[in-house]
Amino acid sequence: MNGNFNNILFATDLSVNCRHAFTYAANLASRYRGRITLLHVMESVPESMDSRLKTLLGKDQWEMLQSKHQHQARASLIGKKSTLATIHQALDSFSDPAQNDDGQYAVENILIKEGRVVKLILETAQEEASDLILIGSNKTMFTEANSLGRRTKSLLKQSRIPVMIVPPADE
């Protein structure tokens, strides 16, 4: 590790906080003439919970609820459209406001994965040979004691590369 951030993994939930955090990723990538990989993880239900809910609700009812939930999550993510291509366009446009004429960086990869958030962030960081993982945070992380989230703690404990947590923008 040489302190240069040539390959930045930007993990996003597409929130306003993450839009603000992306400007930091863009600035760092521009400074080091680096590249950014955008990652959005749609979390899946843990297997133990899945089997319990199947037993409780019945397989057909549970699958119907899962399908409905997934459709609603995708619809809210991309504004009532549910194709993968549209998600990619949304993520691509997500990075546009941070780019400027002086920017010497590239958003080289846009990834959408489904599974366990922390695990997929760490795996993607390794696959992409990332030098830095950058994430946005919510207000409570910086205003309330002991408010560092479970996922953030886990990411910080397990990561072997630097993790940058960007506080939300002032309103």
Give the helix/strand layout.
Elements: E1 7-11, H1 16-31, E2 35-43, H2 47-57, H3 59-78, H4 84-95, E3 106-115, H5 117-127, E4 132-136, H6 140-143, H7 150-158, E5 163-166
Parallel strand pairs: 1-2, 1-4, 2-3, 4-5
Report on the architecture of this protein.
- With 171 residues, the chain is of the alpha/beta class.
- It has a domain at 7-43 and 85-166: 3-Layer(aba) Sandwich (Rossmann fold).
- Helices cover 49% and strands 19% of the residues.
- It contains seven helices and five strands, in the order E-H-E-H-H-H-E-H-E-H-H-E.
- The protein has a five-stranded parallel sheet with strand order 3-2-1-4-5, sandwiched between helices.
- The protein is elongated.
- The chain starts with 6 loop residues before the first strand and ends in a 5-residue tail after the last strand.
- The model is unreliable at 76-84 (pLDDT under 50).
Keywords:
single chain, 171 residues, alpha/beta, Rossmann fold, 5-stranded parallel sheet, 7 helices, elongated
Helix content: 40-55%
Unreliable runs: 76-84
Q: Can you write the helix and strand succession as a string?
A: EHEHHHEHEHHE
Mean pLDDT: 75
How far is the N terminus from the C terminus? 36 Å
Kindly provide the name of the CATH class of the domain at 7-43 and 85-166: Alpha Beta
Q: How does the major sheet shape up?
A: 5 strands, parallel
Structural class: alpha/beta
CA-based shape: elongated
CATH architecture of the domain at 7-43 and 85-166: 3-Layer(aba) Sandwich
